[in-house]
Amino acid sequence: MRAQKPGSINDSRQRPAAPAAPRPPARRRRGPRRWHTALAGLVAAVMLAACGGAGTWGAGSSDQIVVAIVTNSQMEDAISLSGEFEADNPDISLRFVSLSENEARAKITASVATDGGEFDVVMISNYETPMWAENGWLVNLQPYADQTEGYDPQDFIPTVRESLSYDGDLYSVPFYGESSFLIYRKDLFKQAGLKMPDEPTWEQVEGFAAELDDPSKGLSGICLRGLAGWGEVLAPLDTVINTFGGRWFDEEWNAQLDSEESAAAIEFYVDTVRNYGTPGAAQASFAECATQYTQGNAAMWYDATSAVGTVESEADSTVVGKNGYVQAPTQETEDSGWLYSWSLGIPKTSQNADAAWKFLSWMTDKDYMKLVGEEIGWEAVPPGSRLSTYEIPQYAKAAQAFAEPTLTAMKAADQEDPTVDPVPYVGIQFVRIPEFQDLGTRVAQQISAAIAGQISTEEAIAQSQLYAEAVGSTYQEGN
Amino acid sequence: MTTTAQAPAARGASPAAARGAGTDNKVKRREGWNRRGPLLPALVFAIIVTQLPFLFTLYYSLQSWNLVRPGSRQFVGFANYIEVFKDSVFRGAALNTIWITGGCVLISLLIGLALALLLDRPFPGRGLARTMLITPFLVMPVAGALLWKTTMFDPTFGIVNFVLTPIGLGDTDWLSSYPLAAIIIALVWQWTPFMMLLLLAGLQSQDRSSLEAAAVDGAGPMQTFRSITLPHMRRYIELSVLLGAIYIVNTFDHIYMMTSGGPGTASANLPFYIYQRAFLGFDVGQAAAMGVVVVVGTIIVATLALRLIFTSFTEETS
Amino acid sequence: MSTPASTTTKQPSTPSEPTSAPSRKRGGSAGGTAFTVLTWALALIFFFPVFWMALTGFKNEADAYTETPRLFFAPTLTQFQNVLDEATPFAVNSLVATTASTILVVLLALPAAYALSIRPVKKTQDVLFFFISTKMLPLVAVIVPLYVIVGQIGALDNIWVMIVLYTAMNLPIAVWMMRSFLQEIPGEVLEAAEMDGAGLVKVWRHVMIPITAPGIAATALICVIFAWNEFFFAVNLTASASSTVPVYLVGFIASQGLYFAQLSAAATLASLPVVIAGWIAQKQLVRGLSMGAIK
User: Fold this and answer.
1) Does the fold of domain A180-337+415-478 match that of domain A61-178+340-396?
2) Which entry of A100, A387, C75, C127 is 20 to 30 Å from B145 by CA?
3) Beta-carbon separation of B264 and A283 below 8 A
4) Domain boundaries, position C251
5) Residue B252: which of B294, B296, B301 has the closest Cα?
């Protein structure tokens, strides 16, 4: 066999360039030495490079700040402007790690919980901040904020500031804040002779969606998130559950996802998406909805108030100026918007807390808002973090259509009491317990599967209830 | 295994045995170390890097340990294992693993065999055609998965739906409605060239004269294929199945990039589900227990499979 | 890609040519042409996604986002430039991890393969079994302790961790492959060298390495491919400073809106080194992928 193969295959079928056959003796003499030299050179080069790489990771960390962030338009703007910060602070260099929401959460949580120490600044939210502060994983930012001249932490929107505090101290600072509201296409509503009320109910919204949905024209009635992930599909869905009178747990930590009200809300949401949602809704996150809506493929979009940055962006959107904004649709409660803030914190493991704070304060300062407005555009200013932002004349003008609905929604969002019936947890679109990140994701997977039609909504609810019961029971034992 | 071990050993030992006949114990011992010495660095390295972590996996699997709930770490015996066996998603993921591996290996083997047969004949531009055919295998898996998720399967802007529109299937949302099928398609695209390459090598190692003899005897192409080519190819087919299975059973990149195991957990296989339990659920104990269960399962399957691979490999080298 | 002219001449052994010619002819023009057309059709289908990926990389986003895919458009290099700007640090990490791990693999595997072939230790089969079994065990079973251990020694996001893991990952294949190459060295050559009183080092330098150099190259190529493409360890154990090219591509799954053109450019560039290497060394690829079992 050996005799046959190298001969027949190598000689005839070999691509000419391939060096498979033994070299002729003449070259064999010189071969090894050259080979050795080349190899030695390569080894040296690579080891040097590896050391260099290790160096930037180890020793270089004295002035390098590694910032872990969630990819979105406001963050991309911040990255593009960060050169200005580096110019002002030549001793600090920045390195950004931008990840999608689910990935960012996983990576940041793993790193912080295990004292991994890869990051000096992490983008977290009002879900993580108080819990992580309690665990001692975050640097207390209140002293920094108080000592930094002109930083004015009292200027942060009160609901946001409170949601990022533990024992009265800020442990992360808001980059932007958001509630949720309903965006709709004024032009399409006018064409169809429809009128959007100022405070719509979900039933009305469903009616509009049915009216406007027209797949033959590539137009969907409403864009709603469907991607699995507690920060994805569960965010809007939880507000629907709340306003339908449902809740995750009752006061004794009994899971309530299969209660009449919760189940009705989940079914309503899934049916609406399936009937009038966008194609691929089960994979749709904020980003996909943004693409669909700004490309004119959806008549309504219920999502974060921060969506305005994309919707009204001349560069990305084909529907600039055609949009109306109203409060989150309700059913049983008075208002239903969520409260969320992407905020920046410093893990305890950071070796460069002072330098990290410099960057944090730069990015969340009043001046940063002006910088974004002047350099990128006033509609791109990070909304919902500082009250003073809304007093900048240029911003007020650019944000005429949405500034007021945004502020109203943010001020109304009450993390302590979002539901009809009382609950033992804090949070509107989340349950602030450490297990929720996992529980929420698993429930979201079920909902997403129901939206995709993989399982029935009843099955999804039943399985979700089981997950919630398992988590709830650990709190019952604890009490 | 003991029988097959003889072949290579005997072959290599012959010169040394001839030389070393009648030497004393000391020389023998030194000889033994001379033989073992070169092996040790690789062996020790492999044991430290691959086996040591697994001991930790065993240890963690007996603990209740959630990374995001500090102070929760405690010894719980086999409770994690009981949870694993009660977990319907884990069973679903196991089933998905079987579907993905089985489906992907089978389909790419069949297409690969067809392509190998087609390439094993002269035609204009054969080298170019072969080069084009192996390219999918060379594309970085993450890049390939990204490509399929977006430019191919995107419900609005993807090519697949554009091509299918004339036959009325243009509205399919592949990744949501048929996530497993979508993943298998992307994997088949990536792995068919691999199968094709191995099988082509097998075809080209055929003894031409027996084929020609069959042709002279008036055997039709089908008959020749069944009676001569297939028996000859058996070893190559077995090897393709085996190696394909080794790689595909560990598929992670495509699921991570294309569906994240969704919708729900519809397309999660075991590697992805365990990854989720570990890095999204932060449930170290349970993820470790799942890892152990998977390893035990793999060992059982692999022991059966390895008998096969060893026949294949040692026949080859003998 | 027009080089492999030699592949069209099928038979190396001239005697068989005459006899095989008639049978070919009988399969003949009609059937033969049909098969050729079929082959080309399949080749084009399989190649199309790659072609489309490269093509889309030359579009601007507006041309990439059309419900009727555009074949003709004004090409632009913007996307490739953007990607090159962003991805260079990732590429450097990939290069370092790939090269260093490949060198380590060769340095470890070559002696091991020697011990398993030329002068085999006892229990050769058991050792081979062990190496291959490490390849079969699911990586996911060790990722949790790896993460915890690596975190505890403060080495998360360190390129050396990647180098060590990639070395371990490729070692089994390399040992198997090199063993099969070493076994091809005719016993007489070694015996002759030993009779001449050449020491081990001399035998290596003047006999083994020259003969097996192509095999070492083939092994290295396979290791390079697997290390360059590796994703699972990279995505879990690196964060920024040592992230490799596949991790860079993850950034495209859910950025604000979708960027088909840019992600296509990124995917093209990420795949390019291995695609070219694989095109050049198709034959070695077979050998490597089959761990030396098929030549």
Assistant:
1) yes
2) C75
3) no
4) 86-289
5) B294
What pTM value is reported for the model?
0.80
- A37 and C34 Cβ atoms separated by less than 8 Å: no
Of A1, A13, A445, the CB nearest to B264: A445
- Span B62-71, average pLDDT: 86
What the block records as the tokens of A327 is 């409060």
Q: How many domains does chain C fold into?
A: 1
Within a domain: residue C63? no
Q: Which residue has the higher pLDDT, C196 or A277?
A: A277
CA gap B256, C232 in Å, rounded: 10
How distant is the Cα of A219 from the closest Cα of chain B, in angstroms? 12
With CA atoms as reference, the chain B residue closest to C41 would be B129
If you measure CA to CA, which chain B residue comes closest to A438?
Answer: B281
Q: Is B152 on the interface with C (CB under 8 A)?
A: yes
**pLDDT above 60 (res B22):** no
Hey, are the CB atoms on B176 and A283 less than 8 Å from each other? Answer: yes
Task: Work out the percent of chain B whose per-residue pLDDT is above 70.
Answer: 88
> A214 CB contacts (<8 Å, ≥6 apart)?
none
State the nearest Cα–Cα gap between A101 and chain B, in angstroms: 12
- Which H or E element spans position A327? strand A323-327
Determine the distance in angstroms separating the CA of C102 from the nearest CA of chain B, rounded to an integer. Answer: 13
Measured distance CA(C52)–CA(C63) in Å, rounded: 13
Between CA A65 and CA B95 the distance in angstroms is: 44
C267, B140 contact by CB (below 8 A)? yes
- Please indicate, yes or no, if residue C59 is contained in any of the structural domains: no
In this structure, what CATH number is given to the domain that contains residue C106? 1.10.3720.10
C256 and A CB contact within 8 Å: yes
Domain A61-178+340-396: assigned CATH number: 3.40.190.10
* Token pair 């059982």: residue: B300
Mean pLDDT of C184-188: 80
Integer Cα distance of C233 and C170 in angstroms? 13
Question: Domain coordinates of chain A in residue numbers?
Answer: 61-178+340-396, 180-337+415-478
Contact C4 A12 (CB under 8 A): no
Q: Token digits for A187?
A: 């032009």
What chain B holds in terms of domains, given with CATH numbers, is 87-282 (1.10.3720.10)
Identify the CATH class of A180-337+415-478: alpha beta
Residue C194 forms part of a structural domain: yes
DSSP E strand stretches across chain C: none
User: How is residue A193 written in tokens?
Assistant: 């002779």
Give me the interface pTM, i.e. the ipTM.
0.84
Rounded Cα gap, residues C263 and C250, in angstroms: 10
* pLDDT digits (tens), chain A, 479 positions: 333 333 333 333 333 333 333 333 333 334 444 555 555 555 555 555 554 444 344 334 447 899 999 887 788 889 999 999 999 999 999 988 888 777 888 889 988 988 888 899 999 999 999 999 999 999 999 999 999 999 999 999 999 999 999 999 999 999 989 999 999 999 999 999 999 999 999 999 999 999 999 999 889 999 999 988 888 899 999 999 999 999 999 999 999 999 999 999 999 999 999 999 998 898 888 888 998 999 999 999 999 998 887 888 887 789 998 999 999 999 999 889 999 999 999 999 998 999 999 999 999 999 999 999 999 888 888 989 999 999 999 999 888 888 888 898 898 888 888 899 999 999 999 999 988 988 998 899 899 999 998 889 999 999 999 999 988 988 886 54
Classify residue C17: in a domain, yes or no.
Answer: no
Nearest to A53 among C3, C159, C253 (CB): C159
Contact flag C267-B146 (C-beta cutoff 8 Å): yes
Say if residues C10 and B119 touch (Cβ distance below 8 Å): no
Q: How far from the centroid of its chain's Cα atoms is residue B32's Cα? A: 36
The minimum CA-CA distance between C91 and chain B, rounded to whole Å, is 13
Peptide bond into A329 cis (omega under 30): no
